Structures
1.
Amino acid sequence: DCMKIAVEKRENALLSAYNTNTDKIKIARETRKNDLLSAWTIITTKERRAGINQAWIKCKQSIKSAQLELLNTRKSAWMQFETDRKQCNVSATGESETLEILPEAGQ
């Protein structure tokens, strides 16, 4: 039972981290869309290009930030799992964070 609790705790933390990451990327892309649409209302070419570039830069920064947060949260979940596993007096399970497939930062 101890390990089932540890696994459930880890998996819930990972699911939450991935859901948060997905939500943040959706927000970044929605913001980019809105910023691009606004930029295309600008009459002067120079200012319009600046608005378009800024929309893409802002989106890229938001996605990178979300990915970094995901990696840190994921690492914490696995570290906590290892602590919990040891408290359950169970030897290594063969599970590790390297088994997970991560989304790419530039998605």
2.
Amino acid sequence: MNDFDWQEFLRTAKGIFERVKNLHQITMSDEAICRIGISRAYYAVFHQAALLVDSDLHTGGVHERVILALRSSSDKIIRQIGNDLNALRKMRIRADYDSRRYPPRGLDCNAVLELQLAINYAETINKKINLL
């Protein structure tokens, strides 16, 4: 049996961004898919970053433990991964749990901008992991 390729989540997030990046106004369903994309970008790199530390992924509080372990590392790149993952996690929490709509910002929508930022964080984390 082959393991799931978590990078599929990042490819999904990028596909969502391609769909919404040129919209001047987004509907509720557009916002929903942006929120899904933010969440997928986080999980695409969380599972890879978790491999860098010894943590049971089937217990509560695993996200905090993984991030804390990364941020406490003596290795500078691993600490950076932890900091980037923590920032991305905060975005994922907002996307998953904050029911207030992302307010429009000029012709852009914050949900689309947040999705783009989440993808950028995920790509940066991937690059840092590949340096190890």
